[in-house]
Amino acid sequence: MSKEKEVTKVKIVMLTACVDKDDNKVRYEVGTEVEFNKERAEAAVAAGYAEYPQPSDPEI
User: Fold this and answer.
1) How far apart are CA 1 and CA 6, in angstroms?
2) Which of 18, 27, 38, 59 places its Cα 20 to 30 Å from the Cα of 51?
3) In terms of Cα–Cα distance, which of 13, 8, 10 is closest to 53?
4) What count of other Cβ atoms lies within 10 Å of the Cβ of residue 58?
5) What does the pLDDT look like over 17-46, one tens digit per residue?
6) Centroid of chain to Cα 31
């Protein structure tokens, strides 16, 4: 019986155009919203490549 570790996905918004660190054929444009695992998202935000999305205003 194998237990798989649950991976937490986090949404971030790219602030700079860049290529994926693991697959340089994948390109992220400014404003693209992507989901990464928590550690990778934190690293991208800390490096200034991305930010966490702002909550949208509720519709009236």
Assistant:
1) 16
2) 59
3) 13
4) 5
5) 999 989 999 999 999 999 999 999 999 999
6) 11
